Amino acid sequence: MLRHLVSSARRFGVRPMPPHPHKYWEFYAVINGKVAAFFPKADQTDFRDKSLWVFPPETSHGWISSDQKKARIIAFYFSFVPPPLDKIARCQVGYHMTKLSDNEIKRIVIFERELRSFYRQTSPFSSLLFHRCLLELSLIALKNVPVQKLSPVQMTPAMVVDAAIIWFTEHLNENPKLDQVARAARVSTSHLRRLFLLHKRNNPQSVFTRIRLEHAMQLMLSSDDKIDSIAHSCGFSSAVNFCRAFKVHVKCTPDVWRKKRREMRLGN
Q1: Helix (H) or strand (E) run with residue 166 in it
Q2: For residue 73, what are the domain limits?
Q3: Are 20 and 127 members of one domain?
Q4: Same domain, 165 and 229
């Protein structure tokens, strides 16, 4: 669910961030400083302080500042968002932005502090804390949106794909079959394949394998679990199948990848 977490101070007035797309939903909280998102074809920019910006996946955007001062940024990246926020963010100008109160800023700072340790070292409570953070951030983002705009929410094809990915991720260790995922998303198996090809440019099996491998990578970095245990936790039928899939996608074995990544961390 929570795919990435960033907290940093940036001088976008000195080094602007060029436009580029992100794989996941992005909640970009400006804690202090005045910054603006800018887009490849935009004619003007809207500088804001104390604000929360929400971008759908694959929305190409960058960041600039009105001065050379540091801006404190906290960014959360999720695999999905609740349908009402999905609808609002996609139906507007490619993003949704809301002003933050001082109390909301304090809350977001607490979110980052609470999630940091659970993001680095997963536990049975991690998914619950990630989900709570997602819901609270979504409520903050939608606080000024009229109720009439939030209902009714009809499931778009993109939402169906997101729902399928959510359900699969939540049942990862059960190694669910494609027909089970389609049933959970309330579509036929063939229709789900078509939607994945349309919105992910890939078939469901490839996307799900990548999700398994990304989760396995996180476990290999954040724990000392053996490869057998990690393979089972990520829904692979055996360590042999896991190692084979890992080598196809990553071009090395899990043990070699884990060793190199840990050496890189020690080097930093």
Answers
A1: helix 157-170
A2: 2-150
A3: yes
A4: yes
* Exposure of 258 in the CB half-sphere (CA atoms within 13 A): 19
- From 130, 150, 170, give the residue that closes a domain: 150
Question: Which of 25, 1, 9 has its CA nearest to residue 96?
Answer: 25
The answer to whether residues 30 and 48 touch, using CB atoms and an 8 Å cutoff, is: yes
Residues 67 and 122 in one domain: yes
Whole-model pTM: value is 0.62
Beta strands 17-20 and 51-55 are unpaired
pLDDT in tens, 179-207: 999 998 889 999 999 999 988 889 999 99
Q: Could you tell me the pLDDT band of residue 37, with boundaries at 50, 70 and 90?
A: confident
